[in-house]
Amino acid sequence: MITATRPPDGLVGPTGEVRFGVYDQPCAKVDLFRTRLRTLGVPMPGLWSRFRLKEWQHYCLILPEAMVSFAIVDSKFLHTSWCHVVDRTSGAHFEHARQGPRLRARVARQLWNERTHLSARGYRIEVFNHLDHGEHRISIDIDADGTLPAVHLAMTCEHDLDAIQPLVVVLPVGPNRGMYSHKVALPLRGTLRVGDREHRVESEQGFAIVDVHKAHYPRRTWWNWATFAGRDAAGRLIAGNLTHNVNERDRELNENALWVDGALHHLGPARFEVDRERVLEPWRVRTDEAALVFTPEGERAQSIRLGLVVSEFHQPYGTFAGTVRLEGEEVEIDGLYGVCEDHTAVW
After folding, report:
1. Less packed terminus of the chain by CB within 10 Å, N or C?
2. What is the largest CA-CA distance in the chain?
3. What are phi and psi of 113, to 5 degrees?
4. Residue 172: partners with Cβ closer than 8 Å, 6 or more residues away
């Protein structure tokens, strides 16, 4: 049984030890960069902790006729960003992306009043994290590039902390190595323009799945991830997050949960059944409480091989169906939209 507690003043103690846990509210001080890392039992200098920290913000924006997923990733030796757009009516999809060590980029250290942003020629993404005002504001301006249309987006994710509880964890991914994540599904409103086509969405129609992530992953790592959001037959906002990764203590500490109209319900360990050679075939995802089938409609994929750095990434998108048993209720998942992910990395 997962028990959420109040977050500590900082995620790292005075001697560099990580404070693992599942927390019931956002962390005001996300200081994993202060972790005292060891290599072969030897304490490493503080700069090594900062260099090894992987940081990103990933958003999945689900609209009635489109989906936009984007990310800003700081791997320290490499900055990466993409904006993937899916037309849910036609099935067409495309992606703008930028990658390089010298891109102007920054991932916010905290979510109360700070920006995450990346800019390059013809490409700008900014997220203003403003939990003080109960919102995240997203701005995307990407020029047309060859056959790829321009993308312009101005949207607000509404986050009333009294109504919607985020999933906040610090999980062990190695000896004194922590993975901090803040995930939440939020109502979304604003405008998306793709080429000449404009999408306007109000809060009851659009959803944003927010994934804020900082981790001292081991050099070789992997994960499977599933997330989705939508409304059930009763009009309630239903969303889920399920992960299986290098965390070996996922019975007591994990990031598996279901939201029902903002109320967060923790779930047991998640396991994925997927053929990595056929990721567009249906996936099965299970916990003690949940039995879900994910049916892909397409995918975003990326392969990075830069010397000793390798990243193999598949993110199919599609619909989820199944049931999740909660205390006193069985929640039906019927055609809710989202993504799954299969990722292996050496970094």
Report:
1. N
2. 58
3. -165, 70
4. 18, 20, 178, 179, 247, 248, 249, 253
